[in-house]
Amino acid sequence: MAGGVPTWEEVARxxxxxxxxxxxxxxxxxxxxxxxxxxxLLRVRKGLExxxxxxxxxWLARIVxxxxxxxxxxxxxxxxxALPEDPDWVIPPSxxxxxxxxxxxxxxxxxxxxxxxxxxTAVVLCDIAxxxxxxxxxxxxxxxxxxxxxxxxGRRLLRHALVDTGETA
Amino acid sequence: xxxxxxxxxxxxxxxxxxxxxxxxxxxxxxxxxSAYLDGELDDAERHAIESYVQTLPEWRAELDEVAWxxxxxxxxxxxxxxxxxxxxxxxxxxx
Lengths: 169, 95
Hints:
The complex is a heterodimer.
Chain A (H helix, E strand, L loop, with lengths): L7 H20 L2 H18 L8 H22 L27 H9 L3 H12 L4 H8 L3 H21 L5
Helix pairs in contact in A: 1-2, 1-3, 1-5, 2-3, 3-6, 4-7, 5-7, 6-7
Chain B lengths: L1 H18 L12 H6 L5 H13 L1 H18 L10 H10 L1
Helix pairs in contact in B: 3-4
């Protein structure tokens, strides 16, 4: 990492897993997560020269979140495009043979998918990407108080969604 | 006499009641609970929240609720990209 600026290979090798996981938790399915990551990688490549040494994962989380929100807005502008709530739109990935049983994780992901995007992004940035409130506020362009409120309400909604499906342990 | 005395007593009681400050109402549980779990409160706020949680059942219940959700999210496994995704995604960039 010359002068604190990572190379493309370092980003992919060391942080690709993190990037994909955040994308998947935002999108809720592999097909969209792949599209989000592809677009995020393009933006990372364009922005690498301007990258200010700091939290690389914070920067990556911000980029993939912006890609996600851009996509949500684009689909809202074009109602002909199906939204994630449309069951026909989501093609469930075929489970890998060596997939580790994930317990409640499918139910938690489904509850996450049910949250409004504003709450989902705040919760994913906090609990999946592990970013501090101030950084989340900067990424989303909202005050810290709004982030605090969205995280709290998002968690409550998630809990209630899981209670409704009888999936609390 | 008794009636007048009774009326005066009643008036005194009413005055005393109206002079009494309203009983302090505790705030309803709020988003500071999540900020508390995330270590995002300053010392004064943290102490206030700890006091509410220890003394008010509704604060305790909501803390448990959001702590459960936070824990469920943080315990989600890392979701891996399908086999071959990274090779395909990065091939043009790495050459």
